[in-house]
């Protein structure tokens, strides 16, 4: 955890907000798994989210690194590379947003079905999921603004509307 926080604090473009959002979601899922286990419920859905979101921390950093690399190409040839990289940098936080929205719903159900002695853990998990969704949505929005109108943009907007 200390290494990740040191990397997050460094004067480098990655990891950044998208990775932090995914990490927040992974922590939320981990708390959900803990409460599920302690409540004698199935932790598998929370563990699946934790695995996906943990991987998304690096995937987001890699996606934004591709954007940085695309902008380093010669100006007259960079546009298609930038667009492709921006699509990737939009897709990862969109997936984080979708996973944490589903996670948030599972946490609401867990809050109802688990003993009250775990309330603070579930409340913390829900707050972390909300932070993940807020950060992921901000990353989607800012990256989408750099993309031209087209099929990808329409697809992303449809997925956002379904949340």
Record the SSE blueprint.
Blueprint: H1 2-9, H2 17-38, H3 44-71, H4 79-113, H5 119-144, H6 151-161
Please characterize this protein's 3D structure.
The protein is mainly alpha-helical and 163 residues long. Helices cover 80% and strands 0% of the residues. The protein has helices at 2-9, 17-38, 44-71, 79-113, 119-144, 151-161. Helix 2 packs parallel to helix 4, helix 3 packs antiparallel against helix 4 and helix 4 packs antiparallel against helix 5. It is elongated and about 60 Å long. 35% of the residues are buried.
Summary, kept brief:
The chain is an all-alpha fold and 163 residues long.
Rg for CA atoms = 17 Å
- Distance, first to last CA: 30 Å
Total beta-strand segments? 0
Shape descriptor: elongated
The largest pleated sheet is described as: none
Mean pLDDT across the residues is 97
Please estimate the helix content: over 70%
Estimate the strand proportion: under 5%
Tell me the series of helices and strands, N- to C-terminal: HHHHHH
SS-based class: mainly alpha
Q: What is the helix tally?
A: 6
Task: Flag low-confidence runs.
Answer: none
Task: Describe this protein with a few key phrases.
mainly alpha
